[in-house]
Design a protein that fits this description.
The protein has helices at about 5-20, 25-60, 70-85, 90-115, 125-130. The protein contains five helices and no strands. Helix content is about 75%, strand content about 0%.
């Protein structure tokens, strides 16, 4: 059923769990789905972080193009990260773990979107400690 009607598989699996019919559960696919849920949460966190950094870089290095859209995007994605960490506090150490990679991805994207050379954007350490740009 997992491969032919995913929604029905979920509903059936949930019902079997509710009535504690553990002998008839598709454990292999259930475990795979739960693992995928964790990966999905981490990917979402990374995506939100990249978007925040991207717009902060553009905000700092293209002040003449600042827009409410960038500001709104930064606020929205910060909210998403706060909510994700509130719902799953174990994501906080992961956020710190992927910060460097997310910053590199955001700088690469900022280069593509702005036409500025990647060298324009400081290394992460320097950016975090000395050049945060404008606060709003």
């Amino acid at each position: 059923m997992y491969d032919t009607d995913y929604l029905r598989w979920i509903e059936t699996t949930v019902e079997k769990l509710r009535v504690r019919d553990y002998s008839d559960i598709d454990w292999e696919n259930l475990i795979a789905e739960i693992e995928d849920m964790g990966r999905s949460e981490r990917r979402s966190l990374e995506s939100n972080l990249v978007i925040i950094i991207l717009h902060l870089l553009k905000w700092q290095f293209q002040p003449y193009q600042r827009s409410g859209s960038w500001k709104g995007s930064i606020a929205e994605h910060r909210r998403r990260i706060r909510k994700a960490i509130k719902d799953s506090p174990s994501l906080k150490p992961y956020l710190e773990e992927v910060l460097t990679e997310c910053y590199a991805d955001a700088a690469e994207q900022a280069t593509a979107e702005t036409g500025l050379p990647v060298e324009t954007f400081p290394q992460l350490f320097m950016y975090l400690h000395f050049g945060r740009g404008s606060r709003f």
